[in-house]
Every structure is written in C-alpha cells, then in structure tokens.
Protein 1
Amino acid sequence: MTKSKYLRTALLCLFCVSSGFALQEPAKPDNTATNKRDRQPGAVTADKQKMNAVDRTLTARIRRAVMADKSISTYGHNVKIISRDGVVTLKGPVKSSEEVNNIVGKATTITGDATKVVNEMSVAQ
C-alpha cells in the first residue's frame, strides 16, 4: 500500500469513528404488538392460506389488481392477502387511509361481497 493510500484509509477510519458512523447500529423495527396479535388463537396469518383452487385464484386475482395499480405505495403492494373459504383477510401497513379504501375496494369487487373482506390493515406512521 502506498503512503497516500494508507493516509487516506487512516483518515477515513478516523472520520468514521469520530462521527460515530461505524459504531451506530440501525434502529430495528418494533413489531412486538403485531407479533402478539398474530399469536392469538384463530388469528389469520399467511400460513393459514388455503391451497384449494378457489382460494388460490381469489388471492392471485386480488394481488394482480393491487400490483397493477401504480398509485399504491410499496407498503400497499406488500400487504398480506389471505383467502380462506372465500373470505379474504388483508393485513399489513399501508401509507394512508385512502390506500386502505382502495385495496379493500379492489378485494370487494373481486369477491363480489363486502362481507367476505376482512380489513386488518393499518396506516403506517
């Protein structure tokens, strides 16, 4: 290593250490409340998705409709869609209440019945 490369490396290390950059860990998301909710008996989680053709098709149609809407945020595109015996549960954070209404509307249109859509989405802070 040349003297100038050594000096640059030493200065960079000094800068990182003095600024705390190298010592700071990113804040981890606190999903404790969500995890507790999902452990409740009867809670609908992604592993409860039925694998029969009707429920798989229903989930796929809703997912396609959500993904096709480019006005929906990445949060909204990642919402969990779980179908069980024709009843669809929507879970996860989205960016706004308008986005909640948009996604619920798509699911309701596809299921054909508002009583078959369970909204468990939340608006992210």
Note: The first strand starts at residue 80 and ends at 84.
Protein 2
Amino acid sequence: MDEHILTLICDPETHEALEFHPEALVNVRSGRRYLIREGIPDFIDIVSGRNKKYQELYDHIAWLYDPAENLYRWFKRRHDFRRDYIDELEVPSGARVLEVSVGTGANLPYFSSGVEFFGLDLSWGMLRRCRKNLHKWNRTAELFRGEGERLPFHANIFDVVFHVGGINFFNDKARAIQEMIRVAKPGTKIVIVDETEKVVKQLYERIPLLNKYFRKRIEAVADPRHLVPGNMREVKCKEFAGGRLYCVTFRKP
C-alpha cells in the first residue's frame, strides 16, 4: 500500500493509526488486524441488522446493477439524473474525494482524472464490479470495504464527501452523517442522495427479485435532514428526477 494512503486511513473503531503488514493493516497499539482481500482493505468483521440485509441484496444483484440501470434509463427515456446531484458538489482542482457507498463506481466518470478518489462500500459484489469498471474506464480509485457508520479515515482530510443510495436503510443514519462530517475538511459541502418512498413503494416492492427486502417495513422512507447536527450550515433538501430522489446538502463549519 502506498505510504501516502496509509497516512489517511485509521482504525474505524478507535481512529488510531494503522501499519501495513503482509496481507493486513494492523493497529499496533491494540493488535487488531484488518485483512486486505483481493487488494481491498476490509474493515468489517461482522455485519448485522439492516446493513447485513442490504449487503446481501447488493451482493446478489451486483452483476446486474449497471445493465439494469442503463436499460431502465433508456426504456423510460430518462435524462442523466446523476448530473443533478454531481453539480451540487464543490470539487476544487486536485480534490480528495470520498464517496460513501460507492457501489459499481458509476459516479466516478463525472469527475476529472485529476481528483484523488476514495470509494467505500459494504458489498463485496459491488466493489468487485467497481474494480472491473475502473479497469474498463482506465481510471484509478482507492477502494475499501466498510460501513458508513464507521469510516476508516482520519478526521478533516476530504475536500469532497458525498453519498448516493443506501442511507435509507443504514443501521444508524445519524452516526453515518456524523462520520461524513468528521472526515470532511472544514468548509466542505456534504451531499447525501437516496431514493424517495415513491420509488420504494411503486417499484422495489413490486419487483420479484427485490420485494422481499422492502416489504413489511416499520416506517416509510424519509430524507434524513432532521439528523443533520444543528451546527451545520446551509442545510437544504430538494427532490429531483420526478420526485424519485431526494438530495440533502449542508456545509461543515
């Protein structure tokens, strides 16, 4: 692992520094080891609750994710909705960018090759697909397996922090938002995007492959703006893509 990258990552539980050992990252103080699997550091031991449920979903559909999205957009003649939220980001030249829940990496082509891109996801299936896409696009990114509630990065290091898809069903949405704030540099505009209840109710609950993951929910999907800490600035929320997506934005002081 590059020495520069090693200075940016940490033990997600304690935020202590890690050392690179053969096939693992090690917290020398505690002795805790995080294996490097297929070239990707793995910061998860056990996945539980809703995180486990939806990790299994994305592992199962990873191979189909990109073709299905492209087909749906073509069939419905949808415009490129990704540009709607990418334009919300403030990306300085040479920015260090973190995408929480990077999935197959479909957002990466919207950034210039000059950015330093980091992607985290809890699904091995999606990360493997992302790695294949990077090779196809001739792009580079640092990939990590981890949970949004426990980011394996030091504080105040990212110029851009954003999340697209997934937070609706995180175990702890408030903690995930706090983690995004922690790792962002002061002044950073943070962007959180996910699907509205309209999509879950009218689409996911009706698709045979997906419906078992979305039926019998305790509560309807709602945007998490109420979970943004009160000291954040410029808190806003809007819907786009015909009410299928919400976008919460705010700025770290």
Note: The first helix runs from residue 3 to 6.
Protein 3
Amino acid sequence: MSSPLEPGRLEELLADRALDALETEDLDELSRLLGDSPHLEDPTYEYTAAALELAFARQDGSAYTPLPSSLSASIEQRLLALTSPGQAPKPRPAPDLPARHRMRLTGALGWLVAAGLAIVIAWPASDGEPAEAREQLVHLAKDLVTWSWRVQAGFEGSRGDVVWSPQREEGYMRLSGWRINDPASEQYQLWIFDRDQANPIDGGVFDVSSDGDVIVPIDAKLGVGEAYQFAVTIEKPGGVVVSGQDTIVAVALP
C-alpha cells in the first residue's frame, strides 16, 4: 500500500520535472505517484516552463533575442488561458486528495504562470529592430498612449506619432517625411515634458536618414513620472543638456 502523499510534494516534483531538475530517485518517485494516480498528471507546468525558456532565450550569449510579435502574442494568449477558469487543461482532482493539497497545487501553478506571463509582457525591446520592438509594445502595453506630431513651419508634410507606456517608461517615435539631417552639422533631439520635473528630460539625439518611415526608440536620461508632452528640437551634434527650445520642429501632446 502506498504511503500518504505529502502535501506539496507532487507539485514540487512536477515543477522540477518541467525544469529538468529531477534526480533519479525523484524521477522514480514521480513515476510511482503518477502510476498510482494518473489523473494527477498536470501538463501546465510544461507549458509554463516552455514560455519561460522562450522568454530567456539568448542570442550570441549576450543579448535577448526578440520574439516575433505573432509568437509573443500566442504565448501571452496561452498563459492568459491557463489563468482563466474553464480554459486551462486541469488534472481531475483525486477523491482522496486533501483540500489543502489541491489549494497548494493551484497556488503554485498560479505563481509559475504569473511569472511566465510577467516575463512575456516585460519582453525586452530590441535595439537592433525598433520597428519590431514598437509593434511588441503596442500589442502588449495596456497603458499605451499615442500622440501625433504637430509640426512647426518649415516641416509641413512631416508626419508620425509617439507611443509611450508610462508603466514601462518605454516608447518609440515614428517619423515619416521628416527632413534628412547631416549628423556632422546638426542632430534631432527629443525632449520629454514631465509634470514632476522643472525642466524637460533629454530623450536622446537621433538622425533621420530616409524620408520614409523611421522608428526611433525613446532614450530617457531620467526616470519619467507623468509625461504630458514630447518635443523635438534641432541641436548641435551630440545634443545639449538644456535646450533653448528656439529650434522646436515638432511637438506631440494629447
């Protein structure tokens, strides 16, 4: 006759199996437990481990590999399904399984799924592919704001917008039809107007090398509290610490 199942032991073994961290004796124990009670098999640990592995995938051993937006959306939807009642593939509870054990199993699974979902939602932006990173932000950020550029005289025909996530403090500029600049003589510089700061925050210098769509990551030099306006000026190469704002070419605000 099998000994009583220690509360929490099964979930520990299932989690270790999903992480490929089972010792031989532990694997034997899990096989015995599932052999006696196959209805306790729970595939959601593997789903979560797979999502975590994808999220931590590395390129060249140094930088995160950006997921295609379709794949990241699929993972997010799968993880959301696992946290939604009636949608996740759940094991049938054993009639003699103590209630406290079922609660601990559910709690542990919920924590793992939440961790996987958080990593997918917080997927790092790709410096090498700003268009793809922008698409990921637009798809995943629930607090996203989008403001269109209002250009000044001399920049008629320039279009685009700013997308910004206050929670992530991440955003991107989209520019189309902007005047191509010569980096040796001048550069564009972004300024972020924050209600918590007396002076605008430097959002980074950038160049426009095409009159087509150009996507530029926002590189805030300070933490941003509540952004209420973005502005672009023309400055000397390398930018300035404080702008006289006499060369504003475009602003974006609600």
Note: The chain is about 35% helix and 20% strand.
Protein 4
Amino acid sequence: MKHIIISCLFLLLSPFLTEAQKVISIKIDGTINPASAEFIRNGIEKAVSEKAECLIIHLNTPGGLLKSTRAIVGDMLDATVPIIVFVSPAGAQAGSAGVFITMAANIAAMAPGTNIGAAHPVGGQQSDTIMSEKITNDAAAFIRTIAEKRKRNVEWAEEAVRKSVSITEIEALQKNVVNMVVSTEQQLLDELDGQQVDLPSGVKTLKTKNANVEEFGMGWIERVLNLISDPNIAYILLMLGFYGILFELYSPGAIVPGIVGVISLVLALYSLNNLPVNYAGLALIIFGVILFILEIQIISHGILAIGGVLSLLIGSLMLIRTSPSFEFLAISKSLIIATTIVTALFFLFIISMGLKAQRKRPVSGIEGMIGETGETLTDLHPTGSVRVHGEVWKAEAVTGQIQEAKKIKVVAIKDLTLYVEELSRGASL
C-alpha cells in the first residue's frame, strides 16, 4: 500500500519535478550580411551548447548578400539542433535571401500579414545576359537543393528565383512552402510540440510545450558591424575618415579630427571589405583626396580642387559594383551629390581664403613696412636715413635725390635697407 501511494504521488508530481525544456530565440531584422550570418551561427552554437530543444529565428529581411546567405544556409543544414524560422511580426517579409533561409529551416512558420518570395538574384552586368543567366541558374539550383532536402515545394521555390514570384502566408501554407501559420511565439511553441524533425544525428521529437524561451541578442560589437554593413553608412564613414585626415593636415595639432578620421576610415574599410567594392572607384576617391591635399599646399587657383571634386563624384558613383546578391546594393545618389556639393563648397571656401591671403599686404614683420610712410632725416644722395613708425632706418631713394624733411613712402625692403620714393613724386596713400 505504501509503495502504491508513493507511485501515485510521483506520477502526480512528475510534471512539476521535470525540468522545463529551453528554447533559444533570436531576431534578424534587416539585410543579410556577414554580421547577421555570424550572429545566426553564434545562435546555433549557443542552442547546441545549452542543449536547447530548438532555435527559433524571427525573420524579417528584404534580402542581402549571396555569400552570407550561403553561409547561413550551410550552418542551418548542418546544425545538430532543430532550426525554426518564424517570419514575423505582422507586416514582415522573407524576401530574396529570406526565401532561402526560410526554406532551409527544419520547420518554417509565418505570422498573419506576412509574405515570402521574390528571390531573383541581382548582380552581374545587367547588359550581359549570359552572366545574368549563369547567376540565376546557380541560385535556382541552390534553392532546389534546399527545397528537396526539407521536402518543400520545389517548383514554387524555383519560380521564386526565376520569376520573382511572391506569396502571402496563406498561399505559402497551401503550396507547402511553410509548415504552419501562427500569430505568436507561444502559439508557435504549442504547435511545435510533438513535431518530428530530421537532424544529422537522426529523428528528433520536439518537446516545446511550456518551454522556457531565452532571447539571445546581438552584442554591441555585432550591432555596430551590422549597422556599418549598409553601403550608405560605409560611404559616410569613408568620407568622415578622409575629412578628418584633411582637417588634421590643414590644422596640425587639432588631434580630434585626426582621431575621428582614422577610426572612421578603419570602420569604413571593414565595411567595404564585406561589400562588392569597385576598386577603380575607390582609387578615384583616394585620388580626389590627394588633389584636395595638394590644393591646400599649392593653391592652384581651383584647378586641383575641381579635379578633386570630379574624381570624388565619379569614384563615388562607381564605388559599389553590381555583384551576385539578393538585394540591390548601391549608395544613394542623393547622398553622393550632397557629399560632393559640401566638399566643393568647402574647398571653394578654402581656395578663396587662400587667394585673399595671397593678395593681402603683410601687416606685421619687415614685409609689413612696404607701403608705409615716413620722412627723411637726411638728404638721400641716394642713401641716407629716414624715420618710419618712429624708427630710424637706412634708406635709399629709388627716384634720384630726396631732400631732408620730405615725406616718403616705402616701396621695397632688402637687407634692412628701405627703398623709398618721395610722396610728391609718387602715388600717395
């Protein structure tokens, strides 16, 4: 009787004594780039190390780089923990690269009011139909492989690549593109409970009912790297870097512009390293900066600055080349134009100040004596003494002889000798 009572109590209390399962949840909201690819990899590793029941990826993306997409898909297919992709919240999309990531999940879900599709790759020379066809065929084969492995709709997957078709969450469920449509993460966990998924180690039955969800977010370094992966941010950092260095060269010892410039330049180079950079465009931008530096040193009456502005404009337009990707990557033309105009105005200001300084008569030192007036202390035959600004100077007349106590004007100075002319014979001030 005692054993029967203990057994009954154990059965009644076992649900409370059993440790709740853990689920790791991450969010991808933005373009697919090296930073987001690394973040997903870290999420998978965390789920594996903590023996989580599964990893849920909340996805909302317009697309991204092909190289990063391949890295993410590879990690998902090789993962030893179930990967669940949840296109959410309402209004989210799994566009372009997002299609590949969603199809690669063990279980794919979408929230009401979301859509998926339009996975045609962008890149290559648009006029080169052969290259464009090669890129499209490669992407189509890639998504067919994913769809076949996950037993999803292969025909629709290929149409998403070749014809850029896009469908709603209801259509995706009907066409066997996703496994379920749910509104919340909790509803997703309830639906996942008892589902079986294929892993490299074998079949696993999910136990997600009442599971503890642990959110895993990007660290501040990952957030910064994700932010600067945008071509426009990379371009702004590049310009800040060059401007900081220019200001430091123009005003040595300012320190702050130089520090900001170097940091911005390093971050820009990291970002550009992950983007399809046209090095001819980058070379033109650097050449433009060199011309600006020379303009500061030489003052070519604006010729070098004009060349620098043109080089900057053309180089900026060429900086990001079209490359195989699932989103068109380019620097905003309005940003390029605004940057070029600001640069041109800045250097026009610098040039005008330089020309003004060239024309301005010196007002200090020995050179400042030229143009000043005084009077002779002795007769100049042609040399003698004069008083200028209360100081006695050795002087030499440039127009014959000048008698004592005559008003004179300094027209030149050499070896501490003033060359003067009588005011009555020359132009007066």
Note: Residues 13-18 have pLDDT under 50 and may be disordered.
